[in-house]
Amino acid sequence: MENGSALRRIVIVVFLTVFSLAALAATVNTRSLPKTKSKSPAQVSESSKARKRMSRLRRSRGSRRYARSRRHRRYTERFYTSSFASENIAEGDVTAGEDPVVRQAALDALGNMNGTVVAIESTSGRILAMVNQKLALSSGAQPCSTIKLSVALAALSENVITKDTPIALGRRGRFRMNLTTALAHSNNAYFEAVGRRLGFEKVAYYAHQYGLGELAGYNIPGEHLGLYPSEEISAKLGGVGKMCSFGEGISMTPLQLGAMVSAIANGGTLYYLQHPTTPEEVVNFQPRIKRQLAIAPVIPEISDGMAGAVQYGTARSLRVNFNEEEILGKTGTCSKDGTRFGWFASYANTQAGKIVLVVFLQGGRPTFGPKAAEISGLAYRSLYDHNFFGAHAPLNAEQPVIAPSASTLQ
Question: Which phi and psi angles does 303 have, rounded to 5°?
């Protein structure tokens, strides 16, 4: 009996316990908390002021990135003319009256470059060789920095400068340069300043005196005139300053440049250039004077600059191939309408005579003035190796014929 009563007590206790727990659970609030609407990032609204501020920030950051990209971006000029000849550029040249040694030296030096080489005897005006005569006799091209020779002679003749006159350059004029350094390194700012001091009328007058804008040759078939403007180019193109530093607006032929440099080499006589076409014309050759230039006193003033160009300046590439004789010259590099021009005019200052070489190249990026100087060095090397400077006696005519003015020649 006692065991049965104990079992009943246990069942009653368990029942009461379960009932109590159920009652307690019934009193708990089982309602869930109300759901609040959470705002996603996409649903967050911005004030008008904040939107404007962020927009300005984005624009400023973009403009800074664009400015940085522009600072590091380099302008690359495109060229459409080849620097190398695709065919025999000497085909059609008339060579019977040329010096065979000089012609071969010019041919070998020019190689396959798209250009011309003209060799002139400075004491007579005789063209000893003219490779690629079609280009040499053409209407020419912008003279680039070779125009600085004409400007320098004009400024010295007008007493605007001397060889040692310092010209203030730069915005504040803190940097100064003289003529010798400016010619050697072909400084554009220097010659722009000198050109503005001279003015267009004087610059043009002396350029015509030195043979620009007129035929350089005497009855040479196929020769073109070149161009020298009758008035100053517009200020938008640089005015007289750019005309004196780059030859802007001017077209000069290789023969015109050769005649002017020949006058510098011989002391001031501007000869008509003549191109003998037969051996008989060589035998009967007679120099013809165009005019006497009053440049003898100022030639020493530019000689140091021309020599400096070869020794340490823009034409120093010439000395890679030749340094046995003193060479004086001037380079020129510029471009127009997708074609790059490379000029170098020089003369060998030897005891046996002063032969003048003009190298004119046209093409793309491989074409520039120092390359023309390098070609000249190869030509001088060949002439020297063939004893040209020692064996060649310059023509010395006692009574050269004075030819009529260029305007009477057709």
Answer: -65, -40
